[in-house]
Amino acid sequence: MASYNAISPEKLARLIGTPKAPVIVDVRDDDDFEATPSLIPSAIRRGHADVDDWAPKYRGRWVVVACQKGLKLSEGVAALLRSAGIQAEILEGGVVAWQEAALPLVPVASLPQRKATGGTLWVTRSRPKIDRIACPWLIRRFVDPEARFLYVSPPEVTAVAERFGATPFDIEGVHWSHRGELCTFDVMVQAFGLALPPLEHVARIVRGADTNRPDLEPQAAGLLAVSLGLSRMYADDLEQLEAGMLVYDALYRWARDAVDEKHDWVSHTPRRKDAGSRG
After folding, report:
1. Rounded-to-integer distance, Cα 70 and Cα 250, Å
2. Verdict on whether the full-model pTM lies above 0.85
3. 51 close to 75: Cβ distance less than 8 angstroms
4. Planar angle of CA 184, 185, 189, nearest 5 degrees
5. What digits encode the pLDDT tens for the residues 6-50?
6. Residue 59 CB coordination number (10 Å)
7. What pLDDT, in 10s, does the model give residues 110-150?
8. Alpha helices, DSSP H only, in the chain?
9. Cβ atoms of residues 9 and 93 within 8 Å
């Protein structure tokens, strides 16, 4: 019997990638985690034994707790979170149910190490356009909600990465960059195991906009135009990133839910009555 305070894998999967997604906390023990060293997209791994230490971080947030089968560990942690005034549910059936539903998992081996202060740290070139906004959106929505991004002058990206323990992306000669015809966003979608049809659709649009291939998808030229407009509107790269998050939120929801919807103003115009009709 499912817990009253539980969410199904299918419902959670619909929320991941959206601004209203809950915080997902993976509390599997070491043995279970090592047997499946992957995370539900956007999940953060925390210890069930030290919940009192990390719980305050999530006050005012909605938390979904996942363990191996959705039993004692997740039930106990969620109950402790609720006792601290935090809205908390468990993932019904745990990671096992998530896998049985054939939902994606992010391999931990593909993830940079989290900083001691929390979250991964990334660095790229300043004055972002396409990839350097799209990739942070992908990371924050599907990989690490606590990720931080540094925008620095192009010649200093590698040196900043080395000195501050950040992961460089979207520059030549690093792991997270263009490969053949793929842009950095494509590479991340594949490496993070996020082969979801809507994300793959968004990836083609990003690739078309980022590599001057508007023929790949009709929306590529529009994304390029919006991205160039944002770069002219914002002098602060981090402010531009926050504005760009909304653009990619909307693009993802369109790719997921609205690609077949058409807009025709004529269809919304009230019909005229025939001149000779009565009433």
Report:
1. 32
2. yes
3. no
4. 120
5. 999 999 999 999 999 999 999 999 999 999 999 999 999 999 999
6. 12
7. 999 999 888 999 999 999 999 999 999 999 999 999 999 99
8. 9-15, 30-35, 51-54, 72-83, 94-100, 131-138, 157-164, 184-191, 197-210, 220-233, 237-257
9. yes
